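Support case: user asked for a sample of complex input and structure output to validate their parser. Sending the pair below.
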Amino acid sequence: MIEEVFSIDLPVGEQFRIQRCRYTPQSGETKKRISIVSGIHGDELEGQYVCFLLGEWLRSNPEKIKATIDIYPAINSLGIDSITRSVPFYDVDLNRIFPGSKNDFLPAQIADGVVSAMSGSEIAIDIHSSNIFLREIPQVRIAKSQADTLVPLANKLNIDFVWVHDAVTVLESTFAHAMNTLGTKTLVVEMGVGMRLSKAYGHQLLDGILNLMACEGFLEIAPLEVRMPIQSEVGEVAYLNASCPGLFVPAIEHCQMIQKGDIVGEIVDPLSGQTLDEVIAPIGGILFTLRAYPIVYEGSLVGRIFGENG
Amino acid sequence: MKRIEILNFKSPNRAPLKVEGFLFGEESYGTTIAIVGSMSGDYINQLYVASGLVDYLRQKEEEGKITGKILVIPAINTYALNMGETFWPLDKTDINMMFPGYVQGETTQRIAAKLFESLQGYDYGIILEGRRDQGMCLPYVKLIQSGYEDIDSARDLGMRFIHFRPYSPIETVMLQYNWQLWGTKACSVVFGKNGTIDRLSSGEVHGALVRLMSKRGILDTSVFEGYASNIIEPDDITVLKAQCAGIFDSLVGCGVVVQKGEVLGRITDALSGEKLENITAPIDGVVTCQYANPLIFQNSIAFRIASAITKR
Ligand SMILES: [Zn+2]
């Protein structure tokens, strides 16, 4: 069932709206609910594909549904339809304005509408695709304070990497923080790259979501065979930042295992024809982030490597 | 006056980003102040006030009136100013969300780190800020309660209102909070409408900066007294929202004293022209801030009114 959960008039004959598709069990009442969310950032589309795949699966298996399953493919709907990451007109990152407020400007009201629509869900999965600059392997990011509750859940998602990071105050304004505070166990998935689809990742995460829903009692199916993600707590993350401006040309195509000293890519100068720098892996491990957008300034992130200790 | 390079940052193809500061009274052992101008590409008013201040201080220096040390950095994000962008043009990050900065980090973290380093050790710090929404406002002092804030120096600006409030999570990565934590008595002066120059409020802000410098012994010049600033906390503000979206007509200016029942603005349907709404003041007070775009969204904040009546 498609429902509109938030609507607000735009100035000239249109509404800003957030829609969800709700699936419920064929028989019996349920209070148990899960929310699948994408498009908080308007330039991230990987989650849209996952929403489609999940919807398609649920439409063909209605008898397996044991609880309410809500799919929200497009939170920043105005942004998604116009390749705009932030909330258009206001230029505000929606994921820095949660939990929002009814008394504040449009982005804050959207955030408030999102929270009220989803609060009461037992679990939420917020699917991001990095941004247009970086390509990420499927991973879940969790604040340290939430690790005990969320890591076991993340391990069911068929992802490659679970990254537990230190709490940062600024991240208290994210959707995930707001929902976790309200008691909805919320996982943030990052995978793929902005403005593009990575089909294989979409299918990988679909399996993970089905598995999680089977394990947590939302679906009447046997759990799926899923991969166990690498855990960030057993090693360290190395950041590779560009040392100079130029054109970053990767030496490797995809995120993969690399050795210390391997060349990740080169920064070249199209004007003089010179190679300005080689980006060398400072540690061995899995290159889980790789730059997708070639123009770099000094400091631009070109990759991240996770290396296991010892 | 000494023109100093705060940072020089190379671009792949553009001419380098050069951030310049103007330093007065370099040799002085007196009180010190740093003033930060435009951090966003749409903070034109802030650029205007900062560069105007540089010119003013140059004259005062010739007259031998500078008794402390003053650093003015009129523009940080010149790349955005030069192309009509708001944020860092490549990745759209906000430099004022990157403090205290990180020299090993992303581009704008590095820019923030360099800037922050050049701002260390000053007694007073003023950040000239624009709006973070589509509004315009009566110039006011924004002072966040970091635990290190200094309300006395904020009062010396003599502005009508000091908005004094707890900080939100995103403010922990902004300059004011971090500058305060590192020991500078920092506050922001927020004014104008982004992308424009308002001469009246620019003049008011210029006057306030000169007043502070005079009162704190940085500048030897006589000034008129300003306001005995009213401390406004979030509870003192009444928010008036638009019930309808459409074309917005404001009938009052910022700073106007209004009475309960007075019509402040009108909204009409953008297509049919039908009169949809009169926005009226529910309380006596002063309009501190209003929506400043002709097209308004439903539930947008049309006006903010500060009232002494709600004071505890
Ligand atoms: Zn995102």
